[in-house]
Amino acid sequence: MPIEIFASSRAALLGLALGVLIPSAGAAEPSWVNPVIKDFGAVVSLPDAGLQPSKDVDYKVVFNVTVGGGNDKVNPSLDRVARTVNVFASAGVPVSRLHFIAVVHGPATPAVLDNEHYREKFSVDNPNVKLISELQSAGVKVVVCGQALAHNKFPQEWVNKDVETTLSALSDVIILEQQGYALFPM
């Protein structure tokens, strides 16, 4: 094969690859929506995508929330719980069909502190207070491991009023899985 043909074929393949991998300047931005959790967990509605959830099924999920984050940022795992609510809602599943429980422990534990004690501990307002309130309003139960509170030396009185303290994340996940909840580790 002459060098010129090889070079032009190679350039054409490179151009094709770049055209596929790099969106053109005219590509439309996706339309982000927040159908239930208004200020968190934005999603793109995709009504024609495959594997859509049924609108007639109850979904029971326990989210094992362990990831921490920056003290001045919303916990990324709690935001992902909000996104899950919004994904199902954008697909037309009634919120009454979503039985979601977020079990918070490990490095994620500080996210559930009330604003007063969070500010005392980290010198900033708790960015998770509003998110937890919106999750709770949407029917998502947020619980915190009592063992994690003790480990972090956070008194139970410091916990956000929208969060329930439980015996242990270890027992929570086991009990909820036995009750038919699907485990979603985070």
Structure description:
With 186 residues, the protein is an alpha/beta fold. It has 6 helices and 7 strands. The protein has helices at residues 3-21, 76-90, 115-122, 129-137, 146-151, 169-178, and strands at residues 32-33, 43-44, 59-65, 98-104, 141-145, 163-166, 182-185. The strands form 2 sheets. It has a 5-stranded parallel β-sheet with strand order 6-5-4-3-7, sandwiched between helices. A two-stranded antiparallel ribbon has the order 1-2. Helix 5 (146-151) links the parallel strand 5 and strand 6. Helix 2 (76-90) packs parallel to helix 4. The N and C termini lie far apart (53 Å).
Radius of gyration, in Å, reads 22 Å
Helix content: 25-40%
Beta-strand segment tally: 7
Strand content: 15-25%
Q: What order do the strands of the largest sheet run in, or round the barrel if closed?
A: 6-5-4-3-7
Order of helices and strands: HEEEHEHHEHEHE
What coarse outline follows from CA principal-axis ratios?
globular
Kindly state the mean pLDDT as a whole number? 90
N→C terminal distance: 53 Å
Determine the structural class based on helices, strands and strand pairing: alpha/beta
**Low-pLDDT windows of residues:** 5-21
Largest sheet at a glance?
5 strands, parallel
User: What's the helix count?
Assistant: 6
Descriptive keywords:
two-stranded antiparallel sheet, alpha/beta, 186 residues, five-stranded parallel beta sheet, 6 helices, globular
